[in-house]
Amino acid sequence: MNKIWLIIQREYLTRVRKKSFIIMTFITPLLLAAFMVIPAWLATMETGAETVMVLDESGLFADKLENKKDLQFVKVNEELERAKVIYSETDYTALLYIPQLDINNPGGIRLYSKKNTSLQTQLRLENVLEAEIENQRFVASGMDRATLDKMKANISIAAINLSDGSEKDNNAIVTSIAGVAGAVVIYFFIFLYGVQIMRGVIEEKVNRIVEVVISSVKPFQLMMGKIVGIAAVGLTQFLLWVILSFIVVTGVQAAFGIKPAPTPMEQLAAGQAAATGDDQDELEQAQEVKGNKMLTEGLSALSNLNIPLIVGCFLFYFLGGYLLYGSLFGAIGAAVDNETDTQQFMMPITIPLIISFIMSYTIVLKNPDGPVAFWMSIIPLTSPIVMMVRVPFGVPGWQLLLSMGLLIAGFIITTWLAGRIYRVGILMYGKKVNYKELSKWLFYRV
Fold it and tell me: What's residue 131's pLDDT?
């Protein structure tokens, strides 16, 4: 045990002192801050109002098109060719030509511009004209649109969870985010630091350092020390990223007075206003009220989540998944002489990870208690990711214990298998290895 601890210390101190570790530790929070702050800063920049020249030969729209804060209309009463000449001498955004048309079969409307028209502007004009044509049709049919609008209903269903004998607010969005966030961290951690184990083993094997080390410790001790040491490096870097990102983002926002990026509700309001041409301020106010209500419901649902259980499961599957896959990555590193030869062995390891990640989004979130979700959360190769998605939705205790037990058993089995491969492969040079050869290594007596 003392030798494993010495190897852990060596792996940890060697890696945290590397320039690449220090640079990535500080650059990643800066990049994250840039991704968060720059969009918020760009969102605060006011874009100039667009002006559209309107030639309305039908006479149905020219007096109905209302000027907005960011979209102005200028009427022109000229022939089309003359209107084009006038437009070309201005800096207006576009020329909207509306010919004589039948409101029951409108057609022939064109939008001339000096450069490609943005999709948002085109959609906005189309919606403005569609709304006005609908108004014209309502008037022609004798129906009152205002009365019809009042008949529209907006229903919001409050989901209540009764599983524990008490009533708790249940929010599927909050629950899904809580599960997916943990699964994503585990997925990237396994890939990022599992590959580091494999590269570290290859590097030591190529440099023949392992021949010296292996004379003092057993191959299994060396492998375990390397896996745990690199896991400690990953946890250190992850915690530093969280702390530094918070400090950098908060500091930049405070220093430059940048507000957070637009919330989904604000973005929804802006998109709806752009599409319908309605007043954006009114929509934003309505969406803000709705957003505040959703935020209150979300916080209530968040407070009802079993946070200690989620955090405990995250730590267990975080370490369990990493140890399971880390031993396999270490075995691959011991079996080959360079990274090029790892491709044939990487596929069986990466496929379960990728499938579990994809299935989490496509099937598990839709039915967290279905058979696919159940079996994938039980099988050790997929359980670290899939079970984390299921936990916030509520998982029976026996399923959780079974999954954890099988993950521990899977870790022991894969570590035993990897150790058998590692003890032979770590001293094997210049030989192209295949699956048949690996299977023989499992039964070698060294």
Answer: 81
Question: Bridge partners of 54?
Answer: 75, 96
Cα 126 to Cα 7, 84, 96, 133: the distances in Å are: 68, 20, 11, 10
Instruction: Give the best-scoring range by mean pLDDT among 115-119, 135-139, 222-226, 306-310.
Output: 306-310
pLDDT in tens, 18-64: 888 888 888 888 887 777 777 767 666 656 678 888 888 888 776 77
- Write out the DSSP string of 25-92: HHHHHHHHHHHHHHHHHHHHSPPPPEEEEEEESSSSSTTT----SSEEEEE--S-HHHHHHHHHTS--
C-alpha span between 83 and 94 (Å, rounded):
11
Alpha helices in 142-207 (DSSP H): 145-150, 172-206
C-alpha span between 114 and 120 (Å, rounded)? 16
Q: What is the pLDDT of residues 325-384, one digit of tens each?
A: 888 888 888 788 777 777 778 888 888 888 888 888 888 888 888 888 899 999 999 999
HSE-up of 15 (CA within 13 Å, CB side)?
25
Q: Which residue has the tokens 């491969």?
A: 421
Pairing assessment for the beta strands 168-169 and 50-56 based on DSSP bridges: unpaired
Distance of alpha carbon 27 from its chain centroid, rounded? 20
Burial class (CB in 10 A: 0-12, 13-18, 19+), 346: middle
Which pLDDT tens digit goes with each residue over 160-195? 766 666 666 666 777 788 888 888 888 888 888 888
Helix (H) or strand (E) holding 276: helix 264-276
Q: What is the pTM of this model?
A: 0.66
Please provide residue 80's backbone torsions phi and psi, each rounded to the nearest 5 degrees. -60, -45
Compute the distance between CA of residue 57 and CA of residue 79 in angstroms, rounded to an integer. Answer: 9
Q: N- to C-terminal Cα distance for the chain?
A: 21
Q: How far apart are CA 276 and CA 66, in angstroms?
A: 12
Neighbours of 198 (CB within 10 A): 24
Write the Ramachandran bin of 235: left for phi over 0, alpha for psi from -120 to 50, otherwise beta: alpha
- In this predicted structure, what is the pLDDT of residue 403? 93
Distance (Å, rounded) from C-alpha 105 to C-alpha 73?
24
Place of tokens 């994938």: 376
Distance CA 229, CA 168 (A): 42
The single residue listed with the structure tokens 């290895």 is 433
